[in-house]
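In this section we walk through a basic example: taking a raw amino acid sequence and producing a predicted 3D structure, encoded as discrete structure tokens. The instruction is simple. Fold the sequence below.
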Amino acid sequence: MSNELTYTKKTVYELADKSVIDAAMSYAEDYKKYLDAGKTEHECVKISIALAEKYGFSEYKLGDKISHGDRKYFNNRGKNLFLFSVGSEPINNGIRLTAAHIDSPRIDLKQCPLYEEGGMGFFKTHYYGGIRKYQWVATPLSLHGVVAKADGSVVEICIGEDENDPVFYINDLLPHLGQKQSKAPLGEAFDGEQLNILIGSALSSDEEENSIKLNILKILNEKYGIKEDDFLSAELCAVPAAKARDIGFDRSMIGAYGHDDRVCAYPALTALLEATDGIHTTMCILADKEETGSDGPSGMQSELMLDIINEMAANLGGNPAVIRANSKCLSADVSAAFDPNFADVFEKRNSALLSCGVVFTKFTGSRGKSGTNDANAEYIGWLRSILANDGVIWQAAELGKVDCGGGGTVAKYISKHNIDTIDLGVPVISMHAPYEAISKVDLYEAYRAMLAFYKY
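The resulting token sequence is shown next.
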């Protein structure tokens, strides 16, 4: 009787058949390829479109006709992607919507970045998102991004991922001279203006001032046709050069840069592409700028989601307000996995445990639930029922102890449009670090949860 009445979290390994575990291991291999190919939002959009086209999706532009059975994608400035499949039921029945972000914390270049000093050439930077600065020094970095030149051409940059490429580096202070630095609080040991990227030291053959800088510019000009003023219209960033790798003797986990939040974006995307129900209208949004507040035209505070819903309503005979009211959303974002090495900041009964399945987070915010969407009980009850139907293994969690801090997702920006929304995602170890860790079975349960959500 007690087993029927009580609730205890169990791992996927305890609850799932071997076939599910095997499928999770296989699914993880393609996810690792996605991570390695998509270390920026530009790259994620590009490879996601390539995947979508293999599944019969074609490009949509605002103003195009929309019909039942359409499978379309909308590329928003190369940094934000909408994919939708129009079902057979009336559009006023609503949309099954998922939203995940494809930007991750990183080191951005400033618009006038290049200088030399002390026999070294550097890029000046401005970090992006919530990083812990000490984690980014003395580690191999690769350079990614685009340079939009004055003639209208755009040059794509990716240096440091191939084994034959050079990598880049942020200098650290040797411990012999770091006594003062070592006494500083962790968050103050490095200043943002010290995160300068080391990019060269050789002199130009010309005998001029700034000879190192000039030599670097010559290399860039020969390979990419870039001049110094082209940095003014560039979006370039440094990210860890490391590849996604299995972690542990049992290969049960994946270590990589950018799990937050591509570990949710990939299941949301692949489940949408593979969903075959055809009744519900489904949509997956891969968003930008979540790490800095979701602002701008490619972030979730943009009106673009409403524009596309309005276009659907106009083409399919629906009412936008009714569509939104009947829609359901999974804000697909990661959760903090309980870490016994730092147990003092977690309340274990209400923390996500590694390998216990995908995580529902009813609310985020900070302290007194400030700045959060708070999903209603009826919506959670409906989700429980559909996941039970397909045997999806899940858990509920919140982000650490009540007074320890907090965080936010895009959920509140979607729910304000009268759309039932809850956060669902994968628990992550070392979130926002240059190299994060996740469990393969949690990743796969996220995919299975998305499939069920699109179907029911």
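Looking at the output, two observations stand out. Residues 2-104+257-455 form a domain with the Aminopeptidase fold (CATH 3.40.630.10). The chain is about 30% helix and 25% strand. In the next section we compare this with other chains.
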